Amino acid sequence: MISKNYLLILLIFSSFLTFSQNKDRRNYTIQKITKPPKIDGLLNDEIWKAVPITSNFVMVEPGDGDAAPPDHRTEIQLAYDNEAVYIAAALFEKDPGKVMKQFTQRDNINQAEFFLIDLNTYDDGENQTRFIVTAAGTQADARMTGENEDYAYNVVWESQITQDTNGWYVEIRIPYAALRFPKKEVQEWGMQMAREITHLNKTYVWNYIDKSTGEFTQYNGLLSGLSNIDPPVRLSLYPYTSAYVDHFDGNTDFNFSAGMDLKYGINESFTLDMTLVPDFGQTAYDAVELNLGPFEQIFGENRAFFTEGTELFTKGNLFYSRRIGNTPIGFNDAQREKLENEEIIENPDKTDLLNALKISGRTDRGLGVGFFNAITNKTEAVYRDSLTGETRTRITEPFANYNILVLDQRFNKNSSISLINTNVTRNGNFRDANTTGFLFDVYNKANSFNFQGQATVSNIIQPGQDLTGFASELEVSRTKGHIRYGVSHEFANETYNINDLGISQINNYNNFYWESSYQIFEPQGNFNNYRISLYGKHLRRYRPDDAVFTGSGGSFFAMTRERFAFGGSLEINGKFRDYFEPRIDGRFVEYGKSGGVNAWISSDYRKKFAYDVRFYLEDYFQSERQILDLKISPRFRFNDRFNMVYSFGYFSQINRQSFVAIEVPEIIFGNRDQNSIENSIKANYNFNSKQGLNLSFRNFWSTATFAEDQFGYLQRNGLVAANGYDPASDPNTNFNIWNLDFSYRWQFAPGSEAVLLYRNSIFNQDRLSELDYFNSLDNLFQRPARHNISLRVVYYIDYNQVRNLLNG
User: Which Gene3D superfamilies match (predicted)?
Assistant: First the structure.
């Protein structure tokens, strides 16, 4: 109850605070036109001779407010009609040959100079859409929430670039279908524009940004003059077809599928996104590792529908989209419930997504509303009796309905309160779940302090059981000036569980954190910027009230004027009681005091050859346990079209007391060594900004070896008593996985693309942990390889273009 009261007091107190809006914000009055310009990068249309020019950009990196020199001035013009907003940008350069223009595919900027425009159609200081065009013509777009950029967000818009002896030029058309804005006669939008001059390591912005206070998005200028917009119907269709040929272990399968994604503008503010018969066959492979711990491995989302425009649904971290289409909840039970003389001939490890939709938008009063729904198909395990030949089925996951509802109110240009509810309903007598979270993120009047927190209630409903849990977070931090600090608290009771649609690997905690830092905002000496931090944490169990861990440390980050970055950290940690490694509630294993040091360097990516190196060493003072982690990533840019990055990773952990098995009433532990090597390559060759070849390769090898004659029982005090135990089965593991993707991607029309993909994968896991890397690799190649070739074609259809064509 203490956490709930803190949240309520801070919310009431903060509701009286107002943000002092920047009185010096720049304003551009846009003009309405009747004849749109031709988007060809040539700024010779008649309208560009009539609309006003805005210039006078100022530096944001590395300096603070310095005016752009005349030989690098930037001149911008904007106009609009009932279809779109148009932007013309002239980016002058005294030496055009130095303009960096690496060819990349959409949403990848790399070492290319670019022009950027942010449009915040609600002028709320937080939610805006970013559009970027590079000097090579590549487009990038993102949804912004504060300073978080979501480049999975993709909309259809037009741009072209040209270049001459005076610099380079950009022409952009942003249709209203790519934006959401309030329904009112007169619009006033927040706007920011920026120009990155990569070869000079300088960034200039249109409206001045005070880096020492608040967030960058709170310093937008104003775009006024928009009135009486009569936008067309916002309806876009993305039909697709895909074909697959899969060969594995002597069997070849052919598959063909078709489906469609749909975007419909319910009104100017709200959009419906829907996927019908979705196909995720070409999603990137997961970085699977040998998982020896008590928790599931967490993967990033690679499916576009679940990453695009999800900023509302991810508030509060209650939505882990990989739950949808994941392993059926009864997958493991199917194996345990196999009868005598039965074999499992089918037990799918993933559920099929039938369809999904999301509705999201924001009212003219700043209220964001989001609704998400997804339905997955029933999944069954099939058993066959080896004596009679008869088969039976068992439902491992019934039809399941996943829902999210979000309300997010922005106020004072810099603050918000949010309410989010997630719900999972499974057909029949299965487990259901419901979670509700309340969040606030509030700044004071001077924008110098931030108060944020969250209170979450989880509820699990299953036959004969109804569990309700609670968790809370509270953080107060200084957000202004060179010296900053903050304190935070996290709490969860022992029944808190959001894992039906979210991800929470632990509960039953009562944790405290603090941090202080010093940073610069203008270059000093050889440094463009640097930051020094001190931090600490104290972790406790909620029930019983036991200390788990106490640690403290410091970190350092710096970047020189030549874009060479380096940093590191040093930590001293007390004893750690791990309540999850034993796999039985209430039991723990205790690890001794330790110290860790981390160091890293990153060279200037503007050069053809660059590199990243990271090193971590942790030593336990009262035992022989030690951890070493090394990562090296050299990269080479052969020319503006061909780029390659190689990564090597080595991980070693020795003498770790680790879980082996449970033999009731005893928990068996052993002394384990683990070694891992990871090799990966990412390379791309781009013919232009619309066509390119991409290679992605990863090989991960890991072994876990338990020392002989060092097994024992875990005692109640958290220590392991060696007793010469001999495990019934070999606990050692040799894990090896190989993935290779090679693709050709062609964006043949706006919003339309074709992808031809070849995929090769091999996997092996056995007990041969004594093998070295090369022998394990030879052993891997003895396993059957999966070869997959697929072609996917997506075509963008704009309702208005079809209507005009038919009318014509």
Answer: 2.60.40.1190
